[in-house]
Amino acid sequence: MNLLETRQLKKYFGDTHAVDGVDFSVRQGEVLALIGANGAGKTTLVNVISGLLRPDGGTIRFQAVDVTHQSIHDRIKAGIARSFQLVNLFDQLTCLDNVALTVFAREGKTQRLMTLAERDRPVLDEALELLRQFGLEPKARMTAAGLAQGERKLLDVAVAYALRPRLLFLDEPTSGVSTREKAPIMDIITSIVRSGKVTAVIIEHDMDVVFTYSDRIVVMHEGKILADGTPEEIRRNEQVTTTLLGTSAPR
Amino acid sequence: MDTLVLQVLNSLFYASILFQIACGLTLIYGVMRIVNLAHGNLYALGAYVSGWVLGLLATPGTQPRMWFFVLLLAGAVAAAAAGAILEPTLLRPLYKRAEEYQLLITFGLLLILEDLMHMVWGPHPLTSSALPDLLGSSTILGATYPNYNILVIAIGFVAALGVWAFVYRTKFGVILRATSQNMRMAAALGVNVKRVYVQAFTLGCFLAGLGGAIIMPISGAVLGMGIEALILAFVVVVIGGLGSLEGALVGAIIVGFVRTLGIMYFAEIELAVLYLIATIVLLVRPAGLFGRA
Amino acid sequence: MRQKVLTYAAPIAVALAAVPFVLPPYQTILLSYGLIMAIAALGFNLLLGYTGLLSFGHSAYFGVGAYAAAFLVKYAGITSIEAFLLGGLIASALVSAIFGFICVRHTRIFFSILALALSQVLWSLALKLFWVTGGTDGLRVPTPTLLGGLVQTTGDKLVFLSRTYYYLVLVVFGISVAVMWLIVHSPFGKALQAIRDNETRAEFVGVEVRKYRWIAFLVSGVFTGLAGTLWVPLNGLTTPDVLYWPFSGEIVFLTVLGGFRTFSGPIVGAVAFNYLKSYAVGLTVYWQFLLGVVLVVLVLALPSGIVGTLSQLRGRLARSAWHEPA
Ligand SMILES: Nc1ncnc2c1ncn2[C@@H]1O[C@H](COP(=O)(O)OP(=O)(O)O)[C@@H](O)[C@H]1O
Ligand SMILES: [Mg+2]
After folding, report:
1. What architecture (CATH level 2) is domain A2-92+143-245?
2. What is the pTM of this model?
3. Which domains does chain B have, with CATH numbers?
4. What ipTM does the predicted assembly reach?
């Protein structure tokens, strides 16, 4: 069954047709890679689906409900979460608070003015456990601003994952990280996502990274979907290789 | 009929002064993304300096002469000079810091300038009310109106045209607009951003000083005039859209007319009405009538 | 945390309680003013330090709190301090709910200007509607009754203000500090800090940013309003000056002086500012000038204020001691 479905989704910035009539669907339980060259429209697609941007046309259905015009808040409650390509954290809060806040928000506890956050053991334990899964436990008391880039990317994902979403968009979780660090980060993320049985869409523009980790690959090019298939099919698809070879694929 | 004409002229008179203040405020914001809370004090400085210069000449027995009007420019020049000193020394170190700090430092400047004028020129207003009489008055559609006030209106129009031509028709204007749209890109293209900033700031201060200088012969240079001007100029730019020159013009005209109406019909709550208008504009069109974003 | 309360709060509380026995009445009253401003600043800083919103219009809520008490006296003949406090709370909650609803539609400078504009509406009304508000003469507020007359409040006014009223202020101050401390350490307080740091991400973890800003504004206004109510009987009079923008400026100033990125900064700043002001006003007529210079120096050289700078110094000392060979 399709968890998410878009129909003829459009987002234009003046003459730039960033998302240009996209029919995109995500199946329950899969780890899907969304790839394409820089500027293909991947981030914009996620921005529209997650509610950051209003579409210029088309519809978005999540679990068979039309969410096209819902607020960000409602989409989060329905179970759509996302991370950000450029790290987007609460820089002056500690790592622990970054994740704990998310858990508080998920549980509706941020409406409490008169209880001490640090006395809420269940929330703190859950946040610490999440940090442990992401390998960030030693940094729990450091501010997010003080982390290294790779750790910040992981924390960004951890914050989104802490919402326990049904569908998780990860926008280039390894961008800005050295090539050597990429594989370990992707290992951590994909193993957590798979063991937590979360449906995930991972955006990458590096094809090599995704073949190993994804069940299915969707290729975007200039605002449109160019191809859709298993890693094997995509690897054999000549249209994809010629289009992407020109830009970012390895020799 | 003649009261109507008078009211319209009075409104335009207010609008002219308000435009000169608000235009500088909005220009500086447009280019530098800084709201200068001390802007009203530069307007006051223009009034005080021109009042002081004219006061030096007005020894008992001497009659004001026509060329005295030129001396009014001293106020505008003084405000411009102050701007050229303040931007590099106080504001430049803060561009990389959070916006709160920029607001705080211009607030500190406001407090300093307010008292500095008190220190230098004392508590009594400076004025040269004999000057406008030199020009006499005219009869327009049955209403008698001082020629000096008409001159002030004209100066407002000339200032508006001048600024427009400057920003949209000169090479410097192109650089100014480029910097305002994308400071980093402009810097990468070789624009000397520091210089653009100090020039824009100086120009803005010059306009405020000019407004102060030309209103001095009518309402004098008084303590507290800077704050009052700042608050009205805020209303103007909020209505027009912070950063928009057209907005400053339209906002100034709207506020000018509302003030005149206010003084006639609802003197008690004139300020309140102005703020309500600003609030409503911000609610309905958050970026003001002409603002972008 | 319990340890922190014992090592800091308890000795300070004891010292504050001893003040009327140690210091002359004038000094005690001066300190009352400082503690009252501290309550106002605590409220203000929930917005500036914790939510990232700089209000140039907090005089409005202080003024509403003050005028609420004055109206109770003038129009209802009530002089009970409990009624003042209740009335001040309700009035400032109402006004800050309405003004906040408008202001939080904007952020940054637009928020600041809107807050200023709305406060100036109240100021001009207080000034112009003199038959209601007394205009520039303001409204007088007599010595209030306490606990329905159970506590003796008649007699020497100086004694009342420097003893009974001081303790009342101290109690309200203590409660305010405790409540604010709870709020900023609650999950709600964390959400505000998250909004301050990154409003987009806060929205994307499910925090309804605008609503939370509005609640913060409301709480902030109520604290500042409460301070205004407490201030009136001490001052004996309220004039439109407490609604005027320079008063908002003072609240901003003292918070920055103390350090707005710390919890105790506004408290320290308020008390310090209160002394600075009372002496500077006595020494020079140019005290605004002095304030301006101090503010400029603070922003340029000590942006983290008194408390922030002290704790940085202490951190540096601790670190250098740590690295010292045994
Ligand atoms: N806010 C925006 N304003 C204008 N153009 C934008 C904006 N966001 C993205 N674009 C443009 O839309 C296109 C798609 O961008 P994006 O979705 O970021 O691509 P990708 O994530 O695949 O690299 C690009 O040409 C980009 O320049
Ligand atoms: Mg992208």
Report:
1. 3-Layer(aba) Sandwich (3.40)
2. 0.89
3. 2-284 (1.10.3470)
4. 0.92
